[in-house]
Amino acid sequence: MRKNSMKSTRINGEVQRALAEIIRGDIKDPRIHLMTSVTGVEVAPDLKSCKAWISVLGNEKEQADTVAGLKSAEGFIRSQLAHKVNLRHTPELRFILDQSIAYGVAMSKLIDEVNQDTKSE
Questions:
Q1: Are the beta carbons of 19 and 36 closer than 8 angstroms?
Q2: Residue 3's pLDDT is what?
Q3: Smallest Cα–Cα separation from 95: which of 40, 54, 46?
Q4: In contact, 36 and 66? CB cutoff 8 Å
Q5: Integer Cα distance of 10 and 106 in angstroms
Q6: Region 6-120: CATH code
Q7: Three-state DSSP class for 60?
Q8: pTM of the full predicted structure?
């Protein structure tokens, strides 16, 4: 299976949707922040492993706690994923903190500051 094939794209989307649903509704761990979203998923071509990029709207401590909570609930999440998505193998999950949204907001602020400085001159 090629990396960008229709099948892999469809599987990635389905796993991303299911993970977001599980994190939002099924996990009761208080460490996991309410404003947690799954920004991307990449399932390996052999369906044995999966990288899930997680975005948390909060400070660094809340982000670290959320990732720790997700890693400790990995077995539960994987079993729920097996029930929701019908795959030959249920992939092993790896949660990665996605900083791209926070980076984009910070860059946008810097651009706005530069634009205001040039307008005032």
A1: no
A2: 60
A3: 54
A4: yes
A5: 32
A6: 3.30.300.20
A7: helix
A8: 0.79
